[in-house]
Request: fold
Amino acid sequence: MGFKADLHTHTTHSDGWLSVESLLRRAILQQVDVLSITDHDTVSGFIEAEKVNTKYGLKLVPGIELSAQYIEFEVHVLGYYFDTNNKQITEYTETLKIDRLQRCNRIVDKLKAEGVDISLDEVKAECKGEIIGRPHIAKALIKKKIAKNFSHAFRSFLGNNAASYEKKYFISPTDAVKMIHDAGGIAVLAHPGNFDDNTLSIILQENFDAIEAIHPSHSTPQQQKLINICKEKGIPYSGGSDFHGGNATDRGYIGLYFLNKKEFSDIESLKKM
Reply:
């Protein structure tokens, strides 16, 4: 039986569709040996997983996915093996909770002004974790049959070009990497396959410990290109399913996108704590 380490998954603590326990069960069903819950801007999913995992015995890696921005590009930074009780991380996630709620409120107000029958309470009912966001508004729109599915919800109501769009608070990639390093962790550039060469080279000037090469959004040539960049830089590559569970395709990703034992060992060797 092959070894599988999935270092990129999400739960209902951010924008995933599965509870922590359901995700652990799904991972075991797909014969995953090592799992990292990398919810957006929160560690509450990992903290819950540590308690629930006593029943399952998976190897868990502390994780988070921080949202950063470089010019107009959204840059996601994965953090692993950091102190989940770190003061700066805790304060940052609390700030994000408040910002995301305020942003949702503004989006809902704009939707209502456009004649969409939606309330903040209905959106809150779709949020099972600490961080509320556009995916929860989408779920509320789908439940009320205002939107047919996620694609329709974002295309017609919530996308970056929609009338209801509201910018969210971002930190810089430099600050994201530094926050993870200051908490004793390792910083990994997430799913960079869609950046053009020039943008990628600029972003990679940050002090990343690794690059996520294995990802569902990466074609085989993109994956190999990123692996080659890692070799040139003398750093390991990471990978995972980026599992959210919100559509039929995504549900099949867990167990298909993973690191083998050698690849995971290379990432684990960076551990500072």
